[in-house]
Design brief:
Layout (H helix, E strand, L loop, with lengths): L11 E2 L42 H11 L11 E5 L2 E4 L4 E4 L2 H4 L8 H13 L10 H12 L5 E5 L2 H19 L10 E4 L8 H5 L4 H4 L9 E4 L13 E2 L2 H14 L4 E3 L23 E4 L10 E5 L1 H4 L15 H14 L2 H22 L5 E7 L2 E6 L4 H9 L2 E2 L1 E3 L4 E4 L7 H14 L1 H8 L1
Parallel strand pairs: 1-8, 4-14, 6-7, 9-10
Antiparallel strand pairs: 2-3, 3-4, 5-11, 10-11, 12-13, 13-16, 15-16
């Protein structure tokens, strides 16, 4: 079957296998013009706490009154952060293992990131894509030099990046089958995946609770079992295998389809590799990025090969805000730091330390089924809901997330986390584990 295919790495984690990091790397030799400004980067994260005299309860009450209720928020009102710590409006400290859902890769208030944003904001923040801008072109050059890709399209978020990938894949098939009455327009995605909340990305998200309230969504999507044809595995931090990914690459090549990797969460150093697929030496035709790329500012990116780019013409897609000078300057700083071999090696080392410590300390608990992951994206699968554990940890000053069907603890700290902070996080998890016994008993 020939189709315009989407295959996902979104919920996948990758083993720290040795690969040649020099694959298709092109040297860069350029620098950005910057304004000569005296940027004062504050080291005290609590300096702004007294600027908002409202208490948490008052802010929460206002939110319920004025904001559309799409989020079941934790009852925490965060006001500032530094490194891997965040502080609420009352000044209470939390160790942040969520990093804004895998966004704040350099932590909170990284001085180089603050300097890049401040300097660029003083020079030029936004011009739209009617005009060229230096930071956008320089960021694209870096992404191309560090990846399989030949060209880059910028968006404002992960779901927008996936929407662009959908359009590019369809346009590629129409371009490649111009002499045919009907070109292949179908997509293949995988079970237990999540690709975003806009209508196209939602159609490629297998979990029905996300799709059903908004159906009919985009037609022409088939879901296959993730991993292999004989075994279904839930989402929530699962590793792919080289054989599986290679089989996808071969199938796409044989069918004339495109292989698309969604690395919005697992890419940009999170797995210990700059790109998660590097661990297996299997490369896509299109890759989508977003979360950590600009260190907290909204950005998405679609990386494509030249054969895909040739199918795209002026006016086929666009965005007013995407890739503006401010966000691209921030992204250049983030990318330059994360792509350092020493930085990536530290992520791998700390990830192994964290995972081994979790296995050692939590492996004996009755409700823990498995600890898995690679680099600094780790999942602790439980046999019951993880929500009580998340709530208990929050009370003791540790912020963590859930994944899968709510029974997986998702750990995605800033990539700069220290071993001392890892030790503290595991201590809090151990202290909170008894809450699971209480819940199961009740």
């Amino acid at each position: 079957m020939s189709c315009s295919t989407l295959f996902t790495l979104k919920t996948s984690l990758f083993a720290s296998a040795a690969v040649n990091r020099s694959f298709n790397l092109r040297p860069t030799n350029y620098s950005l013009p910057t304004a000569s400004l005296n940027v004062d980067v504050h080291s005290n994260p609590k300096t702004s706490l007294h600027e908002n005299p409202k208490k948490s309860s008052e802010v929460i009450a206002d939110e319920k009154k004025f904001v559309v209720g799409t989020y079941a928020r934790a009852p925490v009102v965060l006001a500032s952060g530094k490194g891997c710590k965040v502080y609420d409006v009352e000044g209470r400290e939390y160790l942040d293992l969520t990093s804004g859902i895998a966004v704040n890769a350099l932590g909170h208030g990284d001085p180089d990131w603050v300097r890049a944003v401040t300097e660029q904001a003083n020079v030029l923040a936004h011009v739209s894509n009617i005009y060229y801008s230096v930071p956008q072109v320089e960021l694209a050059k870096r992404l191309v030099a560090l990846s399989f890709a030949d060209r880059v399209f910028f968006s404002n978020s992960g779901t927008e990046a996936n929407e662009a990938a959908i359009k590019f894949a369809r346009k590629f098939q129409r371009y490649s089958h111009s002499d045919e009455k009907l070109s292949p327009m179908e997509f293949i995605a995988f079970t237990n995946c999540f690709h975003g909340r806009t209508m196209g990305a939602l159609a490629l998200t297998s979990k029905e609770n996300y799709r059903s309230p908004f159906e009919p969504v985009m037609p022409g999507v088939t879901f296959l079992e993730y991993g292999n044809a004989q075994a279904v595995r839930e989402g929530g931090i699962y590793s792919a295998t080289k054989e599986f990914l290679q089989s996808l690459r071969t199938a796409c090549d044989n069918a004339g389809s495109l292989l698309i990797f969604d690395e919005i969460q697992c890419g940009l150093g999170r797995s210990g590799y700059l790109w998660a697929h590097e661990a297996y030496g299997v490369y896509p035709d299109i890759m989508t990025l977003a979360k950590p790329l600009a260190g907290g500012l909204p950005i998405g990116a679609v990386l494509v090969t030249e054969k895909v780019a040739r199918a795209i013409n002026f006016g086929d897609h666009g965005s007013t805000f995407a890739g503006n000078p401010l966000v691209c300057s921030a992204a250049i700083t983030v990318l330059d730091k994360i792509s350092s071999p020493a930085f990536l090696a530290s992520v791998s080392e700390k990830g192994r330390y964290f995972k081994d410590l979790l296995v050692k300390k939590l492996g004996g608990y009755s409700h823990v089924r498995e600890v898995r992951g690679s680099g600094l994206i780790i999942g602790i699968e439980l046999d019951i809901s993880a929500s009580p554990l998340v709530d208990a940890c929050q009370q003791l000053g540790l912020l963590i997330l859930t994944a899968g069907k709510g029974n997986v603890v998702r750990i995605v700290p800033p990539l700069i986390i220290s071993t001392q902070e890892i030790d503290r996080a595991v201590e809090i998890l151990i202290d909170c584990m008894p809450v699971l016994d209480q819940v199961s008993t009740n």
